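Lab meeting, item 3. Inverse folding demo.
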């Protein structure tokens, strides 16, 4: 063992610390702008969610669930959100919902264009893939360290860490969906002289929408999984409630916070999952319209069938009458 070769230590951590320090000293204006935008968005959305009383907002969310997904999710929404209110966790739940929505919107805005670029360019795909692997496998707690340096404590570092952690599924599934589009469909568009951008927006993205929506669904779920971790840096919300329960060894408080997170997760999961299929009301109307059209076609076919012999008989009577008249005139 004494003769073993000892490799020199590579100061990766020191290099990263120097990079963070340099960014903090020279790019503070950028981080201040990003932090102000995120904080304003979270606070504004929280105020909007708290405009209505708990029962009123519950009914609004239930109607939205009914229209998009169906009556089952509507009933679950009423029961679940009333349970949150009865546990006196309504305000923390709205704080967490605002944080998740802002994080999901930012993640979607960033991940979908990157996924499209990766699908259209093999070079971009090869560059992006190891970065996504790094983002997806790095422990989520690690993201909080530079985020605190750049944005101090509060909701902003929680949102930034959540965005970094949640982006990879959105990028991967967007690229997978666009690459999975049937090449013959793309070739057909090219044969008619369709520009590449129009092929992307009219053919590839619509056909890849189920995969893209699955990616958005996954990044929303990952955003919710970061709620508790974001609570460690002062983001508040349900994460703060769960963290307080852990610190006090209060099983009841921690469990109630966890149940509230589960209710939000199920609601957002079913809602975004149903969006890829279209609103349930529109699906029902479309199905009824198709059924009515089918019955009309059958009825029309029957009428035409009954009308044909009548017309044939009438034509025969006319021919017979004409022949009799000709015979009379000849005699």
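The presenter then showed the designed sequence:
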């Amino acid at each position: 063992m004494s003769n073993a070769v000892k490799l020199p230590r590579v100061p990766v951590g020191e290099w990263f610390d120097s990079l963070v320090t340099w960014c903090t000293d020279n790019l503070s204006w950028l981080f201040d702008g990003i932090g102000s935008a995120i904080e304003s968005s979270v606070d504004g959305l929280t105020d909007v969610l708290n405009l209505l009383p708990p029962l009123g907002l519950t009914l609004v969310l239930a109607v939205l669930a009914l229209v998009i997904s169906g009556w089952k999710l509507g009933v679950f929404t009423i029961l679940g959100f009333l349970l949150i209110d009865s546990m006196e966790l309504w305000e923390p739940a709205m704080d967490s919902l605002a944080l998740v929505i802002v994080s999901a919107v930012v993640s979607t805005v960033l991940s979908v264009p990157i996924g499209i670029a990766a699908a259209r360019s093999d070079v971009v795909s090869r560059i992006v893939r190891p970065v996504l692997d790094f983002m997806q496998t790095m422990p989520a707690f690690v993201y909080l360290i530079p985020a605190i340096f750049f944005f101090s404590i509060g909701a902003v570092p929680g949102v930034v860490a959540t965005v970094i952690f949640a982006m990879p599924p959105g990028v991967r599934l967007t690229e997978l969906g666009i690459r999975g589009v049937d090449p013959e469909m793309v070739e057909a568009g090219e044969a008619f002289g369709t520009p590449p951008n129009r092929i992307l927006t009219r053919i590839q993205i619509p056909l890849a929408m189920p995969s893209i929506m699955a990616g958005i669904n996954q990044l929303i779920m990952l955003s919710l999984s970061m709620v508790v971790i974001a609570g460690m840096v002062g983001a508040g919300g349900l994460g703060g409630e769960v963290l307080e329960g852990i610190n006090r060894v209060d099983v009841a408080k921690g469990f109630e916070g966890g149940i509230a997170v589960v209710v939000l997760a199920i609601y957002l999961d079913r809602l975004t999952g149903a969006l890829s299929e279209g609103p349930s009301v529109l699906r029902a109307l479309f199905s009824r319209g198709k059924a009515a059209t089918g019955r009309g076609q059958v009825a029309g076919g029957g009428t035409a069938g009954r009308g044909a012999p009548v017309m044939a008989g009438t034509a025969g009577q006319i021919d017979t009458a004409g022949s009799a008249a000709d015979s009379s005139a000849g005699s």
